[in-house]
Write a structure and sequence with these properties.
This protein is mainly alpha-helical. It contains 15 helices and 3 strands.
Length: about 350
């Protein structure tokens, strides 16, 4: 039997081996590129027509992907992930859909729990008997108790209802309500409620959310719809901003102009002239230390006078909820900063 000779080779890579490895795997920078960037470039390549290089678009009606330039059908028989039914009005859409409402932070459980309706009717629309109505009332009571199982959930439910009420009275959008609910949830999670009222912290959260969203309301407006007095509301607001580290810029008088102009029914020319007066006052530092609501009202009154718009100080005072004395003092300062004489 012939002996076999076993030869041992070194494992040190040569220059040719390194070159072959780089040729197979690509340059080192390609390996180090992030996965998201490679996926994005891959998606961009897929949106290009393989024939002419034009852009592709999806035709949802026919379930096809078609080139916009040459008309090549790249993909067909695509899956439609939408509903298989059609609806022609909101009532029919609500009746046919098989999913609930989206999650929202304006509910203490984010809208994930079930709720028994208040209608005393069965699935066919028929009225329930007296015995069934009593049974459904007891079920609603126990369902409401199980939805709030501890003190924090009850606290949050009461506060979010208060935020909803005040936001509706002030005409604030859904985004402001969501932001206010997030601020209140943070205050509740950091145990800032002991020793303070739920209504006070809820009012402070709503006022801070309005300031952050660029749709501010004056302190008097918020205090008018709140169930706590103005002093407690201000104290709670300063406490929330300080403890949560909220970055809230001072209110700009320009943000109040559109609302006041809409309430008074003035023209766009008058509003533009009022913005010009406020811009000049800001450049000269006159607005420092003064109420932005009073400045906005005075600028609107001065702009109306300069554009020959007949408007009284009482009308502006009622729309902006400031005194006529404040309007007189501020509008004279604005005209002096613009180097315009005060009209008789």
């Amino acid at each position: 039997m012939e002996s076999q000779t076993i030869r041992t080779y070194t494992t040190e890579p040569t220059r040719e081996t390194e070159t072959a490895t780089d040729a197979r795997t690509g340059p080192s920078t390609e390996r180090e590129r992030p996965e998201a960037e490679r996926e994005r470039e891959k998606g961009e390549d897929e949106l290009v027509c393989p024939e002419c290089g034009g852009r592709l678009e999806h035709d949802a009606g026919h379930g096809e992907t078609v080139c916009r330039e040459c008309g090549l059908v790249v993909d067909e028989n695509e899956i439609d992930h939408g509903p298989e039914w059609r609806a022609f009005d909101s009532a029919e859409r609500d009746r046919k859909k098989r999913t609930g409402a989206p999650t929202t932070r304006m509910m203490h459980d984010k809208g994930l729990s079930s709720q028994i309706g208040w209608q005393n009717k069965d699935a066919y629309g028929n009225a329930l008997s007296a015995r069934k109505r009593q049974q459904m009332q007891r079920l609603r009571t126990w369902d409401e108790r199980f939805r709030t199982r501890n003190s924090k959930e009850r606290n949050l439910k009461q506060a979010l209802g208060e935020i909803e009420r005040m936001a509706s009275a002030l005409g604030l959008s859904q985004d402001v309500k969501e932001t206010a609910s997030v601020i209140y949830r943070r205050a509740l999670s950091e145990d800032m409620l002991p020793g303070r009222s739920i209504e006070g912290i809820a009012t402070a959260a709503l006022y801070a959310a309005a300031r952050q969203s660029g749709v501010p309301r004056s302190v008097d407006e918020v205090a008018a719809v709140s169930r706590v007095d103005e002093m407690e509301f201000k104290r709670a607001y300063r406490y929330v901003v300080r403890e949560l580290g909220l970055e809230i810029a001072p209110p700009n008088p320009d943000e109040y102009l559109p609302r006041f102009a809409s309430d008074l029914g003035v023209s766009n020319e008058t509003e533009a002239r009022a913005r010009e007066l406020l811009r000049t006052a800001a450049e000269q530092g006159i607005h420092s230390g003064k109420s932005p609501v009073g400045l906005a009202a005075a600028a609107l009154y001065a702009g109306a006078l300069l554009t020959n718009r007949q408007i009284t100080q009482d009308e502006v005072s009622e729309a902006a909820d400031v005194s006529t004395v404040t309007i007189r003092n501020r509008y004279q300062e604005l005209l002096e900063a613009q180097e315009i004489g005060v009209p008789a």
